[in-house]
Structure formats: structure tokens, C-alpha cells
TrEMBL record:
Classification via Pfam families: Dimerisation, Methyltransf_2
Stated name of the protein: Methyltransferase
Every O-methyltransferase dimerisation domain range: 17-89
UniProt KW keywords: Methyltransferase, S-adenosyl-L-methionine, Transferase
The O-methyltransferase C-terminal domain, residue ranges: 126-322
PANTHER family registered for this protein in UniProt: O-METHYLTRANSFERASE CICE, PUTATIVE (AFU_ORTHOLOGUE AFUA_4G14580)-RELATED
Amino acid sequence: MSIVVPKYLNESERLLRMLAGSIISQAVYAVTQLRIPDLLAEGPRTCQELASLTQTEASMLYRTMRFLCDEDIFRETDEQTFELGPLGPFLRSDTPDSLYAHALMYGQPWHSQPAGHFLESLTKGVSAFEASYGMNVFSYLAKHPEAELIFQDSMSAYSRSIIPAVLAAYDFSQFDTVVDIGGGHGILMEQLLTSCTHTKGIVFDQPAVIDSAKQYIKSLGLEARCDCMGGNFFESVPQGGEAYVMKHIIHDWSDEESISILSNCRSAMKEDGKLLLLEVVLASGNEAHFGKLLDMEMLAMSTGKERTQAEYERLLQQSGFRLNRIVPTSTHVSIIEGVPN
Ligand SMILES: C[S@@+](CC[C@H](N)C(=O)[O-])C[C@H]1O[C@@H](n2cnc3c(N)ncnc32)[C@H](O)[C@@H]1O
């Protein structure tokens, strides 16, 4: 089933729809938080029934769901009766490729408010998050455990949808020890150790995050093959690994900050080690690419950016590596392989 921008819109309506983007995002957040996609998993329900199950005001819920039919999230099958549309299943909490946790994160004030500081960000040359909260997003999350949990859940869910393609595209079983720098709650490591049964792992992340990773790895019975270590990658990273993997880390940071993280990996790794960055690689021309949206998110939330192959080549070269090859996956994420220079 193909998804299209509603055809009924003329140019000025398309622009108005763009201007109302935050309302669309908040409407998606509201129905997801109410778990309406889960409630429609088994088939259509009336709006009255949904309102009573979610303790919401029926006529307001109806208007919200009617609008989200235009966005392909729901479909009105009968008068005031809805089923899931083509995008609806992705907002269920229980599917492998679920964006449920993502929708919850996008609705949080700390995620949506920085966009209101975009202009200030452009004029001052700092991220909108920094302009809004006076600190970088990771310092904010470390101080707000509830927000940290929502962020990590969202990253884990996103990772679950990407990692199978990464493991299919690259042979990680060639390594004895893989270190996942900024590994969050350990989802990548879980899947990697499950598919490469002779490999050992280390998950490294901030002290505020690593306890949850420890618990998660232990709950899977993988603790004998995986250490979880807390620290700051601007100071040092665990020594002696064969492969240093970073998924969606370098895009969070400026060139200067990235060089500091990468140089620490270079000092810690074995001479025949490999650096593996799991990132979007932007095309150098001006063709449309999903990565440009992620780049805007980086602009709003961090000092980082999405980069082209030439930019990654330069970054690696300035950190003691040579870009060996870029392995595409079936997703928008590629594996950028660096080797010591
Ligand atoms: C965008 S998330 C990526 C998480 C994970 N790699 C994934 O793709 O799901 C960035 C991660 O970097 C971690 N991080 C941020 N600053 C750090 C620091 N100074 N030292 C170690 N980890 C850090 C965060 O806690 C977070 O888990």
C-alpha cells in the first residue's frame, strides 16, 4: 500500500500543513500515549468505545482520529468507527518495528520545545536545545532520569529496527571482542552476541545509563560474555577491543568533539583493530535523502550533524584512522569501516 501526501492540497495548503507540523506531531503523540493503536490491533472499534477505554472526551477524540485518517494512521470504516491505517501498526507498542517509543519521545516538552528556538539557534550558532536549556541534551538527560528512560527506550526501539540489517551486511563474528561505545541499554550488543556466539562484548556508556544496560544484559543471561562499563568517552574508552562500534554517536557531536572521541578509540584499540561507525552517509549532491531530516534533528538537539563520505574521510584521518570502506545496509544506515593509519 503506498503512502502519499494528501492529493487534495494545493500549494498554499501544503505550506499551511507544514506550518502546522507540531500539531500533527502532538496529535500522533496523544493517540500513541493513549495506546489507541494497541486497542485497534484486533480490528475496528467505535470512537465511543475507545473514549470510554481511554477515559477521554469522545467528540474530541473523534476529531483527532478523523484528522489522523488523512495521515494514514487510522481509517474510518463506518460512522465514528475506526481501524488502523497503513501507518497505524508502527505505533503499536508490541511489534518488532514499532515506533511507539519514538512517538512518545517526540511528544515530550524537552524534545519538542527546542524547535521553538530554531531561529535563535541559527543566529547564535548554538543548537536549539542549548539555546533552550543552556546545556547539551546528554547533560540534561543525565539530570532527568525519567527523560533519560524515554530517550533510551526510543533509541532501543529504533535500534531494533536497524540492527538486523547491520548484522546481515557485516560479519562481526571475525572479532573476539567488540566494544560498543555509547551503547545505551545494550540492544546492539544483545543482538550481536546472539548472532555471533563466540564473540565477547563490552557496552560502554555514561554512568547514569550503564546500570540499566547491566540489568538488561543480565536478564538475558549474557553477563558472562559481556561487561558493562560506565565512563566518559571524552576522557577514555575501554582498552584492548578488536572492534569499536559506535551507532549514532558521531552524528551527535561537532568535528572537534568527534575527533576527541575517535582519538580515544584509536589509543585504546589493538593495532589491527577496526572502527565501525553506524551512521547515515549523506549523498554529496542535493538529492533528496532521509538523512537530511535527521540532520535537522541534530541541528535542533545537539552540536552534531549528518556527514558525507568526504566529511567522514576527513574526520577519520584527523583521528588516526583511514576510511577503509563503507558497507551499505538495507536501511538508511551504513557501516563506515576505519582502520588505524
Ligand atoms: C544517540 S544515543 C545512541 C545510543 C545507542 N548507540 C543506539 O544507537 O541506540 C547516544 C548515546 O551516547 C551516550 N553518551 C553521551 N555522552 C556520552 C559520554 N560523554 N560518554 C559516554 N557515553 C555518552 C548516551 O548516553 C547515549 O546512550
